[in-house]
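Hi R.,

Here's the chain you asked about this morning:
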Amino acid sequence: MDDLLGPFRQSLESLDRLAAESLFEQAVERSSPLGAVESLVVPALEQIGGEWQSGSIALSQIYLSGRLCEELVERVLPASDPDRKHQPRSAIVVLSDFHMLGKRIVYALMRASGFELLDYGRMEVDELVARCLRDRIRVLLISVLMLPSALKVREVCAGLQASGGEVKVIVGGAPFLFDPQLWREVGADAMGRNAADAVTIVRQWMDNMP
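And here is the predicted structure, written out as tokens:
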């Protein structure tokens, strides 16, 4: 599979849909749908995320790569596939802010990596807590852009705990990048520096969830 990884990543970066589809199909034939996702799609997206952090590719390339991978994964792992049913119920939301791009990128990469999650759009604290409890969410991904919104994560975590919800919260966004300790101060369980981090963290959590 290693021989496919480089060409697949390059096809995503250049938005060469036909090449990406061909390489992905080869990976499925060699392994399985889930094996192709885990051995080809996920590492390719992680590498692209690293390249964006180093400034060698544009943010739009991450987003469009994620959308293309999302389509590929959807073909071989539809929502009804048993491999998706073993995941914790997850949701993603923009808390208070109106900047949606970060959430869209994470959402696309999570789905491209084989995860099913609910897209809550934009919500305020009370609505978000109530919705998580109603949907029995186990993993909540929160995206913010502004510091006041980041500080509201503390209210979300407190509300979930007070209601007895066993929800793990992962946060991301500019305020958490500027202050690497902020996620701990607001009571989150983890912070993702990029979309690939979110995928990695949720996968690690899954191993320890009943």
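One quick note: The mean pLDDT is 86.

Cheers,
M.
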